[in-house]
Description:
The complex is a heterodimer of chains A (about 110) and B (about 110).
Chain A lengths: L4 E3 L2 E4 L5 E6 L6 E7 L6 E7 L2 E5 L7 E4 L6 E5 L8 E8 L8 E2 L3 E5 L1
Chain B lengths: L3 E4 L2 E5 L4 E7 L6 E7 L6 E7 L4 E4 L2 E6 L4 E6 L8 E11 L2 E6 L3 E6 L1
Parallel strand pairs in B: 2-11
Antiparallel strand pairs in B: 1-3, 3-8, 4-5, 4-9, 6-7, 7-8, 9-10, 9-11
Amino acid sequence: DTGVSQNPRHKITKRGQNVTFRCDPISEHNRLYWYRQTLGQGPEFLTYFQNEAQLEKSRLLSDRFSAERPKGSFSTLEIQRTEQGDSAMYLCASTETASTDTQYFGPGTRLTVL
Amino acid sequence: GENVEQHPSTLSVQEGDSAVIKCTYSDSASNYFPWYKQELGKGPQLIIDIRSNVGEKKDQRIAVTLNKTAKHFSLHITETQPEDSAVYFCAASIGVQGAQKLVFGQGTRLTINP
């Protein structure tokens, strides 16, 4: 079990560019979550997948954000037309089954928008 | 929606002493309360959790207490060691379509002085 992995670990982009992040959950974890963490704050929930179905989206997830989990395994988070306010750590977490609450977090992708 | 307040924001203790971090939550429907430790450049790591049907839980030097009536829960670390230095986050969770959406506190930066 290698844990949750995220790529890239760091991304620097210019305002207006599109970026895409990838999350690979722990093998056979069917629930996957995305959170955003700004400096000095706790993570904030963005969205959640049960297998390939996206079941909830936070109001923080504007129409410039889109997340997918096409085969129920890895997930991608895309931000279009990035803004400086998008600069943050994007965290992914996964959960094994419906009977457990424990969320295991990945190392995160730190996004800097210049 | 749920709101979680965490205090203090920073805490400095002498090695070997105890540290206590407190959190309050607003939604009485919350039923799961994890604590995470986050080191620099890493994702949050679960250290202990408690469910609403339990008042206290202990794991070696770490303990968590929950007062459902007052809607607050606390993390207690005894015999602190330098490696306990990190940022600690509490969270409260409400079930969302069978999954747990975590709402985090603002974090406590704990420093253990040798």
